[in-house]
């Protein structure tokens, strides 16, 4: 019976079949030990010369790191073994034994070398733990929306409309149509969808042609966006803090062993519960100025400023009401002060920066048209977007959560490149 390592404790005393790869192996006289990994865990396989055929024992001693193999044997309890169990093999069937040494064996490989061999690096225990945490984050996002009656809407990758700054777009020739862009965001399309379905979200790749080399930036990254009809600013804040709290709790409960294996301090994550603290942009500027930062009202925050603000709190913190001219064209002005908009950035603690950008959207046709012209955007490309304000317009709000930044924060990673299976950074598109 083929079973996975994670399920072996259910089969103690039984004969099982395992399929995997050699993590480590050693032999001494008439006994060999093979640590087998299968993606769900690692187990020690004991191969005794007296219990198997000479050919099987010979094949076992020939195994090298990352050899693929099938093992058949009995599951036995062994407190001294990893996981408290061992396999006493009756058969070892090599599928492939590499001719060359596995390229990743040394503890001191450079990051460039590891990234160049990312297709093999992801087999390492640390990377397996990280990718399991990523899986838990994605499951939590979908589960959160499913439990709350949201509808998933898949938004396009090719778009003719600019959602954010035009300077950060990848431009492509689209047959005879002309220029199109790789999507920076699916927000505009979710706005259309929420007018049909009420509560919607997406989850998929987005692209920013931003020449940044910081530990927080990727060129291709995944984003979860949500949009809700009739939601205003405060409703939007509540949805964001509920989502982030839910994700963190889900990961602790369902991938806690992976967090611990990375050495993550889970006690810090356990404090992440709604409500989150809130400060205005204006309050944040005053705070930073007192801390000696050279920042003027009207300028956006950089990574250092975000870190300084966030380290005052144990939970993520909302920074709200940014200056109108520092944010995107579609954001709703504050009725009490039209120079700021009803928006927020959610900053993660521990120096991980912005994980969510959000706003209430402009729902008035004339005001949106005025903003498009102010930002020098081609009005004809937004005819369909303006239509949403001509037929049944309502206040609505939404946000975008950066999946990799969220993973990096939850897992305690030093660099965002480990938060995605194959990172696309400023100088890397291989493998």
Would you write up a description of this structure?
Its EC number is 6.1.1.22. Belongs to the class-II aminoacyl-tRNA synthetase family. Homodimer. Pfam families: tRNA-synt_2, tRNA_anti-codon. It catalyses: tRNA(Asn) + L-asparagine + ATP = L-asparaginyl-tRNA(Asn) + AMP + diphosphate + H(+). This protein has helices spanning 54-62, 111-116, 118-121, 125-147, 187-197, 233-261, 266-269, 281-290, 303-310, 365-374, 383-390, 403-411; strands at 15-28, 31-37, 42-48, 68-77, 85-96, 151-152, 158-159, 171-174, 178-182, 199-207, 220-229, 278-280, 317-320, 333-334, 337-341, 343-348, 353-361, 396-402. The strands form 4 sheets. The protein has an 8-stranded mixed sheet with strand order 6-10-11-18-17-16-13-12. Strands 1-2-3-5-4 form a 5-stranded mixed β-barrel. A 3-stranded antiparallel sheet has the order 7-9-8, with no helix packed on it. 30% of the residues lie in helices and 27% in strands. A hairpin with a 7-residue loop joins β4 and β5 (85-96). The mean pLDDT is 96. It has 2 domains: 5-96, OB fold (Dihydrolipoamide Acetyltransferase, E2P) (Beta Barrel), CATH 2.40.50.140; 118-419, 2-Layer Sandwich (BirA Bifunctional Protein, domain 2), CATH 3.30.930. The protein has 431 residues and is an alpha+beta fold. α4 runs antiparallel to α6 and α4 packs across α12 (403-411). The protein has 12 helices and 18 strands.
């Amino acid at each position: 019976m083929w079973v996975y390592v994670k399920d072996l404790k259910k089969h103690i005393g039984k004969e099982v079949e395992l399929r995997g790869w050699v993590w480590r192996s050693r032999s001494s006289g008439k006994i060999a030990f093979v640590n087998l990994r299968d993606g769900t865990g690692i187990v020690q396989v004991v191969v005794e010369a007296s219990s198997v055929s000479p050919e099987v024992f010979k094949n076992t001693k020939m195994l090298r790191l990352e050899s693929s193999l099938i093992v058949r044997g009995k599951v036995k309890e062994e407190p001294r073994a990893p996981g408290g169990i061992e396999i006493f093999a009756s058969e070892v069937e090599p599928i492939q034994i590499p001719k060359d040494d596995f390229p990743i064996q040394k503890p001191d490989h450079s990051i460039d070398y590891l990234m160049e061999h990312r297709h093999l690096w992801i087999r390492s225990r640390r990377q397996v733990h990280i990718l399991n945490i990523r899986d838990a984050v994605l499951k939590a996002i979908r589960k959160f929306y499913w439990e709350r009656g949201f509808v998933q809407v898949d938004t396009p990758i090719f778009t003719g409309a600019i959602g954010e700054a035009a300077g950060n777009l990848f431009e492509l020739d689209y047959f005879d149509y002309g220029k199109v862009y790789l999507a920076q965001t699916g927000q505009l399309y979710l706005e259309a969808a929420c007018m049909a379905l009420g509560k919607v979200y997406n989850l998929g790749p987005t692209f920013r042609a931003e020449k940044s080399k910081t530990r927080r930036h990727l060129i291709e990254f995944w984003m979860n966006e949500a949009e809700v009809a009739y939601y205003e600013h405060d409703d939007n804040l509540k949805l964001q803090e509920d989502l982030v709290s839910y994700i963190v709790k889900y990961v602790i409960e369902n991938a806690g062993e992976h967090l611990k294996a990375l050495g993550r301090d889970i006690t810090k994550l356990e404090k992440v519960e709604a409500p989150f603290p809130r400060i205005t942009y204006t309050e944040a500027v005053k705070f930073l100025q007192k801390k000696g930062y050279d920042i003027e009202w009207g300028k956006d925050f950089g990574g250092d400023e975000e870190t300084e603000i966030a380290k005052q709190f144990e939970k993520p913190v909302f920074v709200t009401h940014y200056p109108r001219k520092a944010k995107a064209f579609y954001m709703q002005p504050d009725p009490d002060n039209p120079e700021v908009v009803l928006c927020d950035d959610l900053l993660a603690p521990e120096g991980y920066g912005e994980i969510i950008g959000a706003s209430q959207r402009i729902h008035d046709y004339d005001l949106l048209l005025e903003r498009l012209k102010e930002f020098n955007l081609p009005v004809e490309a937004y005819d369909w977007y303006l239509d949403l304000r001509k037929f049944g317009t309502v206040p609505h709000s939404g946000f975008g959560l950066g999946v990799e930044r969220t993973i990096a924060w939850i897992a305690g990673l030093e660099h965002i490149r480990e938060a995605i299976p194959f990172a696309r950074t400023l100088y890397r598109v291989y493998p």
